[in-house]
C-alpha cells in the first residue's frame, strides 16, 4: 500500500499540484494588492471585502492540495473539512462583496444567507465526514487524462451536502441578479466583465459539485473557478477604481477652478498649486509667482509665525483651531483682513496641506460701520449713551484703583427748543454740531465728551485731584472754560446766534454709586442750575437725597407688590406685512393700590439692582407659559408666539436653563411658542456661557430674539454663532426713519445683515403708516408698535384679536 501511494505522489507532481501552488501565490498577490489599495485613505469597503475573498482563496487552495495528496481516509477527511470551511467563509464574504459593489441596500438576503452559511460552517466541522459525505468508505486514485494521478474519496452524500449545494446556487443567483441590475443602471463594460467572471465561476462550480457527488470522474476544479473570477474581477475593480478616481479628480478640479474662494495646496510647507481667485486676491498674474514659495508667504509678517505654528501643531495631532481670521499681504505690500482655514489631506502621493482663504474686507468694513453707528451719535459724531456708559464704567474703575476723583458734567442748552421752533431743525442740527466741536476743545485728551440725546451733552473728567475740594475747583475751571467757549456767537446760515448752557456736576471716587445714579445726580444738579437762572454750573447737593429716599421706599413697596400679586401682564400684538397677528410681547405692569399703574421704567431698574428681578422674572415666565397653554385651546390664538423679556441677571443664573425647561414641561406647551428676548449687552458679556445657554434651550425648541438691535455692538463673529431666530430693530431708529437718512441707512444695513444670517427681522415702535411702508420697502416683514396696537391687558388683547 505504501509503495502504491509513493508512486501516486510522484505521478502527481506534474500539472495539478504545481498549478494549485501557483494559484495560491497569485491569490496572495491579489490579496496584498487590493487590501493595500483599500486601506489607504479614503478606505474602500468593496476593495477590503474583495481582498479578504482573495485571502480566503489561499487556504481553500492549500487544503485542496492536501486533499488531493491525502494518504489515508483520516488525512483526506481532515483536509476536506477545512477545504469546505474555507469555501463556506468565501461565499459569506462573496455575498457581501456583491451587495456593496452593486449598491443594493436591502441586505435581507445577504444577512440571511450569512446565517445559513455560518450554521453550515459549524455543522461541517462537527460532522465526522464533513458536509460532503454521510460516510467515507475509502480513498482511491483518480487517473487524469494527461496521466496525472490524484487522490479522491469514495462515499455517499446526504442531506447536508444538498443543503450546501442549494445555498451555493442561491448565492450565485443573487450575484447574477445584482450585477444585471447594476449593469442596467450604469451600462458599464466593467459590470459585463464581472457577469462574465461569475458565469465562468458558476460553470466551474457546477463541475466541481458534480465531481464531489461522484457523478463526474474528474478532480474538483474549484480553485480554477475562483482564480478565473479573481483575475477578471480584479481587472474590472481596478478599472472601476481608476475611473472613480478620475471622476473625483475632475470634480475636485472643477470645484477648485470654479470656486469663488481662494484655494491653495502645499506640500512640506511649500505652495504647489493655487486657483485663479487666490491669484486675483493677492494681486498675482501667474501661478509661477506663488508656487515654489512658502505657503504662508501671503500672510502678513507679524501673523506668519502664528499661522505656521497653528498648522504645525494641528498636523502633529494637537487640538488647535486652524480656521481663524488673520491679515493677508498682497503682492504690492498692501494688507487686508482674511479668513483662513487649513486642513491636512492624505492622498496617494503623500500628505498635502489644503487651505482656503476669503477676503473679509467688506465684512470688516460693515462691522466697523455698524459699530460706529451703534456707539456714536450720527449728527455730531460724539459717543452716544451706550458708549458713554461704557466710558463711565471704566472711569469709575480707574478712580477706585487710583484714589483720584473723577467728575460727571451734564450740559443742557438753554432755550434750544425755541431755536428749533423758530428756525427749524436744520438750524438746530447745525448748532448742535458746532457746540460739540467747542466742547471737545474744552477737555483734555483722555476725557470724554458725549451726546446724551436731544440738546444734552455729558463730560467725563478723569484723574482729578485726590482732594475733593481741589477736584471741585478743577471742575469749576472746566465749567468756566465751557461757558466762555460757548458764549462766543455761532454762525448759523446767514445770521449769528448766541446760546447759554446749564451745567450740573457730580464727583465720584469709587464704584459705590452706579452709572445711572451718577447721571441722576448730575441731572438733579443741572436742574438746580436752571432754577438758579441758567447759564451757570451747580454741583450735586447731598441734601437732594429725597429722590434716593423715595427710591428706598419704592423698593419696600416693590417687595410687597411681589408678595400680594400686584403685577399684571400686558400684551402688545406683533403683525406681519399682511396685517396678520403672528405673536405678542409680554410687558409687565405694576397695578399699585394707591398710585395706580406704575410704568416699568420706574421699577424695573430698581428690581434689577436689588435682585427682585429674579422672582419677578420667574413669575413672568410661569404666567406666560400658562397663557400659551390657555391659547392652545382657541383657534384664534393657538398659533401666536409669545415673547418674554429676560433680564441679564436672570439669564446668567446657573439654573436658568432648568427653570425654563421646568416651566415649559409643567405647563405642557410647545417650546416653539415661547420666544425669549435678549439684549445685545447680555450677549457680549460672557459670550461663551451665553452661547452654551442659548444652544441648550434652542435644542428643546425655545426661540430667541435679539432685542433693541443697533443700540449696541454685536460682532458678526458672535452673531453667526448664536442660535437666534429673530432680530428686533430698536425703536430709536424707527422714530425718525421718515425724515432721517442715517436711520434709514442703519435699518437697511441691519435688515441686510439679518437676511445674510437667515434671521427674520421685526421692527418695534412703529407708530405711523409711513414708517411701516418704508420698512416694508427696506425688506422688513414683521412689526410691533402703537400703529398695530398698544400694550393692553389680556381680555382687551383677546377682544381686539377677535374684532380683527
Automatic annotation (TrEMBL):
The reply on keyword Oxidoreductase is no
In the Enzyme Commission scheme, what number(s) does this protein have? 3.1.4.52
Q: Write down the InterPro entries for this protein, in alphabetical order.
A: Biofilm_reg_signaling, EAL_dom, EAL_sf, GGDEF_dom, Nucleotide_cyclase, PAS, PAS-assoc_C, PAS-like_dom_sf
GGDEF domain mapped to chain residues? 404-542
GO molecular function term, any single one: cyclic-guanylate-specific phosphodiesterase activity
Where is the chain membrane-spanning? 15-36, 48-67, 79-100, 107-127, 159-180, 192-215
The EAL domain extends over 551-804
Q: Where is the PAC domain positioned along the sequence? A: 322-372
Instruction: Name the CDD domains for this protein.
Output: EAL, GGDEF, PAS
Instruction: Decide whether keyword Hydrolase is in the record.
Output: yes
Q: Which UniProt keywords apply?
A: Hydrolase, Membrane, Transmembrane, Transmembrane helix
SUPFAM superfamilies, alphabetically? EAL domain-like, Nucleotide cyclase, PYP-like sensor domain (PAS domain)
Please give the Gene3D superfamilies that the UniProt record associates with this protein.
3.30.70.270, EAL domain, PAS domain
Which EC class is this protein assigned?
hydrolase
Q: Cross-referenced PANTHER family, in alphabetical order? A: BIOFILM ARCHITECTURE MAINTENANCE PROTEIN MBAA, DIGUANYLATE CYCLASE DGCP
NCBIfam families, from UniProt?
A: GGDEF, sensory_box
Q: What is this protein called?
A: Cyclic di-GMP phosphodiesterase Gmr
**Gene coding for it:** gmr_81
Amino acid at each position: 500500500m505504501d509503495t502504491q501511494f509513493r508512486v501516486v505522489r510522484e505521478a502527481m507532481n506534474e500539472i495539478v499540484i504545481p498549478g494549485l501552488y501557483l494559484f495560491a501565490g497569485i491569490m496572495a498577490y491579489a490579496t496584498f494588492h487590493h487590501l493595500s489599495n483599500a486601506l489607504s485613505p479614503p478606505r474602500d469597503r468593496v476593495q477590503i471585502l474583495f481582498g479578504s475573498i482573495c485571502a480566503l482563496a489561499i487556504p481553500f487552495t492549500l487544503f485542496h492540495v492536501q486533499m488531493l495528496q491525502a494518504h489515508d481516509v483520516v488525512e483526506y477527511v481532515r483536509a476536506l473539512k477545512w477545504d469546505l470551511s474555507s469555501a463556506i467563509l468565501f461565499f459569506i464574504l462573496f455575498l457581501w462583496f456583491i451587495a456593496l459593489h452593486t449598491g443594493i441596500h436591502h441586505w435581507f438576503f445577504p444577512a440571511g444567507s450569512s446565517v445559513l452559511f455560518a450554521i453550515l460552517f459549524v455543522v461541517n466541522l462537527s460532522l465526522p465526514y464533513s458536509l460532503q459525505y454521510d460516510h467515507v468508505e475509502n480513498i482511491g486514485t483518480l487517473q487524469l487524462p494527461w496521466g496525472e494521478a490524484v487522490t479522491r474519496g469514495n462515499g455517499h452524500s446526504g442531506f447536508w451536502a444538498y443543503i450546501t449545494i442549494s445555498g451555493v446556487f442561491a448565492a450565485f443567483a443573487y450575484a447574477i441578479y445584482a450585477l444585471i441590475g447594476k449593469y442596467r443602471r450604469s451600462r458599464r463594460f466593467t459590470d459585463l466583465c464581472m457577469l462574465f467572471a461569475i458565469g465562468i465561476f458558476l460553470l466551474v462550480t457546477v463541475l466541481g459539485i458534480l465531481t464531489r457527488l461522484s457523478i463526474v470522474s474528474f478532480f474538483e476544479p474549484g480553485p480554477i473557478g475562483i482564480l478565473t473570477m479573481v483575475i477578471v474581477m480584479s481587472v474590472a475593480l481596478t478599472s472601476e477604481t481608476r475611473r472613480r478616481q478620475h471622476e473625483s479628480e475632475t470634480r475636485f478640479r472643477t470645484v477648485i477652478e470654479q470656486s469663488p474662494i481662494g484655494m491653495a495646496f502645499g506640500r512640506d510647507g511649500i505652495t504647489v498649486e493655487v486657483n485663479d481667485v487666490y491669484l486675483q486676491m493677492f494681486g498675482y498674474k501667474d501661478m509661477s509667482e506663488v508656487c515654489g514659495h512658502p505657503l504662508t508667504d501671503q500672510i502678513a509678517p507679524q501673523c506668519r509665525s502664528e499661522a505656521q505654528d497653528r498648522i504645525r501643531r494641528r498636523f502633529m495631532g494637537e487640538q488647535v483651531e486652524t480656521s481663524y481670521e488673520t491679515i493677508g499681504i498682497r503682492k504690492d505690500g498692501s494688507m487686508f483682513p482674511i479668513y483662513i482655514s487649513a486642513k491636512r489631506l492624505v492622498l496617494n502621493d503623500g500628505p498635502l496641506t489644503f487651505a482656503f482663504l476669503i477676503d473679509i474686507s467688506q465684512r470688516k468694513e460693515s462691522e466697523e460701520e455698524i459699530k460706529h453707528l451703534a456707539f456714536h451719535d450720527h449728527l455730531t459724531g460724539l459717543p452716544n449713551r451706550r458708549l458713554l456708559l461704557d466710558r463711565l464704567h471704566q472711569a469709575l474703575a480707574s478712580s477706585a484703583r487710583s484714589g483720584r476723583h473723577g467728575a460727571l458734567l451734564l450740559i443742557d442748552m438753554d432755550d434750544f427748543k425755541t431755536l428749533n421752533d423758530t428756525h427749524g431743525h436744520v438750524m438746530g442740527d447745525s448748532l448742535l454740531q458746532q457746540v460739540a466741536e467747542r466742547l471737545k476743545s474744552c477737555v483734555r485728551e483722555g476725557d470724554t465728551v458725549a451726546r446724551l440725546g436731544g440738546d444734552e451733552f455729558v463730560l467725563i473728567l478723569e484723574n482729578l485731584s485726590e482732594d475733593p475740594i481741589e477736584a471741585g475747583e478743577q471742575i469749576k475751571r472746566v465749567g468756566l472754560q465751557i461757558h466762555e467757549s460757548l458764549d462766543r456767537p455761532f454762525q448759523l446760515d446767514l445770521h449769528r446766534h448766541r446760546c447759554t448752557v446749564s451745567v450740573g456736576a457730580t464727583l465720584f471716587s469709587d464704584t459705590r454709586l452706579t452709572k445711572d445714579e451718577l447721571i441722576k445726580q448730575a441731572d438733579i444738579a443741572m436742574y438746580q442750575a436752571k432754577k438758579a437762572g441758567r447759564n451757570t454750573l451747580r454741583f450735586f447737593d447731598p441734601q437732594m437725597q429725597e429722590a434716593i429716599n423715595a427710591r428706598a421706599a419704592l423698593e419696600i413697596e416693590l417687595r410687597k407688590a411681589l408678595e400680594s400679586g400686584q403685577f399684571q401682564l400686558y400684551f402688545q400684538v406683533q403683525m406681519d406685512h399682511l396685517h396678520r397677528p403672528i405673536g405678542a410681547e409680554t410687558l409687565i405692569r405694576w397695578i399699585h393700590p394707591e398710585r395706580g399703574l406704575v410704568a416699568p421704567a420706574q421699577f424695573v431698574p430698581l428690581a434689577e439692582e436689588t435682585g427682585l428681578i429674579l422672582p419677578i422674572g420667574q413669575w413672568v415666565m410661569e404666567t406666560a407659559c400658562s397663557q400659551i397653554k390657555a391659547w392652545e385651546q382657541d383657534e384664534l390664538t393657538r398659533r401666536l408666539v409669545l415673547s418674554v423679556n429676560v433680564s441679564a441677571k436672570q439669564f446668567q443664573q446657573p439654573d436658568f436653563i432648568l427653570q425654563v425647561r421646568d416651566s415649559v414641561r409643567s405647563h405642557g406647551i410647545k417650546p416653539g411658542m415661547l420666544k425669549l428676548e435678549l439684549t445685545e449687552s447680555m450677549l457680549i458679556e460672557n459670550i461663551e456661557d451665553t452661547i452654551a445657554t442659548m444652544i441648550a434651550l434652542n435644542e428643546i425648541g425655545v426661540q430667541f430674539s435679539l432685542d433693541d438691535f443697533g443700540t449696541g455692538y454685536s460682532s458678526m463673529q458672535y452673531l453667526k454663532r448664536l442660535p437666534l431666530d429673530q432680530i428686533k430693530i430698536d425703536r430709536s431708529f424707527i422714530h425718525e426713519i421718515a425724515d432721517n437718512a442715517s436711520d434709514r441707512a442703519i435699518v437697511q444695513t441691519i435688515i441686510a445683515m439679518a437676511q445674510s444670517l437667515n434671521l427674520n427681522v421685526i421692527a418695534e415702535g412703529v407708530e405711523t403708516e409711513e414708517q411701516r411702508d418704508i420698512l416694508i420697502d427696506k425688506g422688513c416683514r414683521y412689526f410691533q408698535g402703537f400703529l398695530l396696537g398698544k400694550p393692553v391687558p389680556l381680555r382687551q388683547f383677546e377682544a381686539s384679536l377677535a374684532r380683527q
